[in-house]
Amino acid sequence: MKLGLLILLHLISVYADYSPLSYVDRPCGEDLTNLWLDVIAVVDNSRGMTVDGLNEIASNIASVFGFGTRIGLNASEPRTTRLGLVTYNSVATQKADLNQYQSIGDVFHGIFYALSNTVDTTESYLATGLELAEKMFNDQSVNSIRAHYQKVVIVYAATYQTKGEMDPESIADRLKMSGVKIITVAYGDAYGLMKSLSVIASPRFALSNLADSPGNLIVQIQISLLEANWLSAKMSCSNRRSNSSLATEFSQAKHDFIFNVVQNTTGFSPPYQYHVGLNYVSGLWVWTQPTGRQQVPLQKPFMWLSGNPQRSSTQSAVMNMQSGHGTGWQNIATMTLSANFICETYSCDTDNYCGA
Ligand SMILES: *[C@@H]1O[C@H](CO)[C@@H](O)[C@H](O)[C@H]1NC(C)=O
Ligand SMILES: *[C@@H]1O[C@H](CO)[C@@H](O)[C@H](O)[C@H]1NC(C)=O
Ligand SMILES: *[C@@H]1O[C@H](CO)[C@@H](O)[C@H](O)[C@H]1NC(C)=O
User: Are the C-beta atoms of 245 and 275 separated by less than 8 Å?
Assistant: First the structure.
């Protein structure tokens, strides 16, 4: 656990100093204090969980958000996280709506009380818990000022049961399709349960409390939350975000990644051709940057198609042109050729809050 935290702190200081002039793409923010999410914890409180188990979950949740994450709403700080709480057994209960906890103190007080005892039944239908979480997001987040916040469900389950039409998998699929990330934590019967829950979880987000120490589980959940915050980033040139610009290709890997994305995007077809952010300005090839930021002079690796660049002074824009199985840069006169644009924005993460 110490190691994980040290790495996080190190990264925070690196990010604060990020400059594109370093010719490396901006790494993602990993500052837990700036987490901005809407999270619902969905906790199995059937008999199988045991009182000790519930207690452990309460302290796990309190710890996950206890590293400075701002809980609740704050009119002058958009990077906050709301936390709701649902318990389930044969039925689901809303223990805290998304606006109840307005500080980490509220979480500490509320969560240990809400998770102080099990319900005397062996029935435990995750489907009921997921369904209630879905309803809470619809009622308390969608159509609100928080609509664009990444939504995350954290499931803590001691067993996996289905009953008739109550199929947790199809509800989980519906949630994931609407953009919600699901983290699952298996309590007890580790392997079989974790396997069942892995169909519920988003990729890489199926965790277990047995595999590691409690401290390790806390860090694993925190990493998943940071990743969820970052995944909400989309490669787009939205006008609403002034930090976006045409894509840079600082490395072969990025060049290949963009080509890969283009091939997977409807609206593009072979032979693939698309603009990137390389321009000839005042005798120099530079990568454009968002308004107000210094342009970045071109460095190796160069990905020019053979014969390029030609007559830079009149052909000052650059697009990627498919050539065989790859693409390469070809310089063209600005606006002479209609082609798609590949834009990028600093991804929305804990360093970079993105408005609606
Ligand atoms: C709200 O955010 C501002 C700016 O980050 C901070 O100074 C203030 O203490 C916050 N208010 C509360 C109640 O947390
Ligand atoms: C653009 O990014 C900078 C640095 O990350 C940040 O300070 C600024 O608020 C961002 N602007 C917008 C509109 O997102
Ligand atoms: C593109 O699609 C292929 C095949 O579906 C997939 O393996 C690959 O990860 C996708 N690439 C990107 C960048 O989405």
Answer: no
Residue 260 beta carbon below 6 angstroms from any ligand 3 atom = yes
Closest ligand 1 atom number to CA of residue 72: 14
Q: Is 76 in the pocket of ligand 1 (CB under 6 A)?
A: yes
Q: Which ligand is nearest to the CA of 235?
A: 3
Nearest CA to ligand 2 atom 5: 352
Place of tokens 């188990």: 53
Q: Ligand 3: distance of its center to the CA of 234 in Å? A: 15
pLDDT per residue as tens digits for the range 324-353: 888 999 998 765 555 566 766 666 666 666
Ligand 3 within 6 A of CB of 8: no
Query: What residues does ligand 2 touch, defined as CB less than 6 Å away?
Result: 241-243, 346, 352
Residue 170: give its domain's CATH number.
3.40.50.410
Residues forming beta bridges with residue 152, ordered by sequence position: 39, 181
Instruction: Classify 339 as helix, strand or coil.
Output: coil
Domain identity same for 83 and 211: yes
Query: Which candidate, 244, 212, 204, places its Cα nearest to that of 228?
Result: 204
Distance CA 41, CA 280 (A): 52
Whether the model clears a pTM of 0.85, i.e. scores above it, the answer is no
Shared domain check, 219 and 81: yes
Q: Is residue 279 part of a domain?
A: yes
Give 103-159 pLDDT, tens digit per residue.
Answer: 999 999 999 999 999 999 999 999 999 999 999 999 999 888 898 888 999 999 999
